[in-house]
């Protein structure tokens, strides 16, 4: 029944993508992509169990880190107009 | 004993999938940005915790459980931070929360 959990997570990802496309403000889109990234982490972990390969959990951990950094970087770019210091 | 652990793992996985799907539906149907943060929080906390807990019960003790606990701990610490950052940015940029219009006749 890992396949049922994976199917449910994919349905949830489709809803998050719909909000990312529809969302009238940019903050809706950032929120939706953050939720989509969390669901991607869960999907990688469940698919790793589904195929019997425990190495997928390393990918899930790395993607959790990347998702968080991407959300913060997008917000920083919106606020300051650039990333980092440029002389 | 192992049957009970199996059934518990499946129940946790199904509960987590239910919350992920209902959070997704909430993301689409909620009327305003600030109200949409609640379904996103449901997905990040309830959905992720139940699914990872179900996987931990299914896996049993070992290295896999430690990695799953690391994923859960990281999601716990970063999703509230990211949600707060988005909310603060939206409020600081002048987004006004949606309120229901009052009815004209009585009530």
Q: Could you name the key traits of this structure?
A:
heterodimer; A: mainly alpha; B: 107 residues; mainly alpha
Q: What topology does this entry show?
A:
The complex is a heterodimer of chains A (about 90) and B (about 110).
Chain A: H1 2-22, H2 26-50, H3 56-80
Chain B: H1 2-29, H2 33-59, H3 63-92
Helix pairs in contact in B: 1-2, 2-3
Quote the distance from N terminus to C terminus of chain A.
55 Å
The percent range for strand residues of chain B is under 5%
Beta-strand residue percentage of chain A: under 5%
The assembly state of the depicted protein chains is: heterodimer
Which of globular, elongated, flat, extended, rod-shaped describes the shape of chain A? flat
Overall mean confidence score, pLDDT of chain A? 89
Rounded to the nearest angstrom, the distance between the terminal CA atoms of chain B is: 58 Å
In N-to-C order, the SSE pattern of chain B is: HHH
Query: If you compute it from the alpha carbons, what radius of gyration of chain B comes out, rounded to the nearest whole angstrom?
Result: 19 Å
The shape of chain B is elongated
Could you describe the 3D structure shown?
The complex is a heterodimer of chains A (87) and B (107). Chain A is flat, with a radius of gyration of 15 Å. Chain A is built from three helices and no strands. Chain A has helices at 2-22, 26-50, 56-80. Chain B is elongated, with a radius of gyration of 19 Å. Helix content of chain B is 79%, strand content 0%. The model of chain B has no long low-confidence stretch (mean pLDDT 87). Chain B has three helices and no strands. At the A-B interface, α1, α2 and α3 of A face α1, α2 and α3 of B.
Produce a short descriptive summary.
Chain A is mostly helical and 87 residues long. Chain A is built from three helices and no strands. Chain A starts with a helix and ends in a 7-residue tail after the last helix.
């Amino acid at each position: 029944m890992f396949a049922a959990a994976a199917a449910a997570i994919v349905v949830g990802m489709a809803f998050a993508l719909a909000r990312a496309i529809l969302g009238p403000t940019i903050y809706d889109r950032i929120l939706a992509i953050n939720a989509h990234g969390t669901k991607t982490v869960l999907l990688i972990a469940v698919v790793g169990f589904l195929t019997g390969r425990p190495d997928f959990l390393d990918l899930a951990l790395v993607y959790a880190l990347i998702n968080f950094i991407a959300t913060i970087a997008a917000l920083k770019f919106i606020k300051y107009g650039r990333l980092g210091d440029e002389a | 004993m192992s049957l009970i652990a199996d059934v518990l793992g499946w129940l946790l996985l199904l509960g987590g999938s239910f919350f992920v799907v209902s959070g997704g539906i909430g993301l689409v149907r909620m009327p305003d940005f600030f109200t949409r943060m609640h379904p996103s929080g449901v997905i990040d906390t309830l959905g992720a915790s139940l699914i990872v807990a179900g996987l931990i019960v299914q896996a049993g003790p070992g290295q896999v459980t430690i990695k799953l606990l690391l994923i859960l701990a990281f999601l716990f610490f970063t999703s509230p931070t990211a949600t707060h950052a988005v909310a603060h940015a939206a409020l600081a940029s002048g987004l006004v929360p949606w309120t229901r219009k009052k009815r004209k006749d009585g009530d």
